[in-house]
Amino acid sequence: MYKKKNYLKKIAIYDFDGTLYGGETISNFYFYCAKHNWLLFLWLPYFIILFLLKKIHLISLKTFKQECFRFFGKHLSVDKVYKFWGVNKKKIYPWVRQELERDRKRGYHIICISATPEFLIHGIVIKYLKIDTLIGTLLNPKDNRKIIGKNCKGEEKVERLHLWLKKNNIKNYKIVKMVSDSLADMPLFNIAENKFAVSPKGKIYKGLPKRNI
To answer: How far is CA 192 from the centre of its chain?
Structure first.
């Protein structure tokens, strides 16, 4: 009887903010919305206080993000996100599309794993960049302030990757490439065969990044 071969799946992983995209999606989206509704600028002092509390570890990153998401409300719509990326897709680094095309020709399955909410980057990652899979922070569709599970950062990125592999019954795989701008992604770098960094100026090079944010 013919038995289907269990082919090795080669996976290339990319971070998003600071790696594929030369910006910070959540703050960029906030200022985009505020430009169209100046009342949103009233939130800015609150966000600054939250950021300082996070820096001195009085609140967690998850709490910080959930509080920041409070402004989303009616602004977190498909139409608003689509218009945001219509303006901001120019911040995708120039080398990205060519690098992704090389990965596709090599037969890699390309995954973007990001701490940014999936809802905010799904269109730009899947439809514009044509990346195969997106794994990001999940928000409760009934309450945009609430994160489902954990913030997708650090070790959680590896956990979410393993969940995706299990869900798709992928057992024979190799992480052939990991690309990020930050050492915060060291858990993913540790399981990757080849490591690439992106500099603050948006240049890609072989090796580990120099910053940890």
So the answer is: 17
